[in-house]
Design a protein that fits this description.
Layout: E1 16-17, H1 19-26, H2 30-37, E2 44-47, E3 50-54, H3 55-63
Antiparallel strand pairs: 1-3, 2-3
Length: 74
């Protein structure tokens, strides 16, 4: 997804998200997005060095109200 593209709706998102998409959706830094995708329980999958997240799995994870967001324990 283009870094400058504005996210207007769920339908605008690709079926498979990358770290930059997660960063934009959540409004967090790049470092926090990488910390998040490596957190236990986060629905990321890896293919070599690529980290991807199913759009459906990501929003289901968010709906659960997971507390694995980096820095949330402060």
């Amino acid at each position: 997804m283009n870094d400058k593209k504005r996210l207007n709706s769920y339908e605008d998102l690709p079926l498979v998200l990358d770290v930059a998409d997660i960063q934009r959706i959540m409004g967090i830094s790049r470092a926090s997005a990488y910390e998040l995708v490596h957190a236990p329980g986060f629905p990321a999958f890896r293919r070599g060095r690529l980290i991807k997240v199913s759009k459906i799995a990501f929003f289901e994870w968010m709906a659960k109200g997971s507390e694995t967001v980096p820095g949330s324990d402060k």
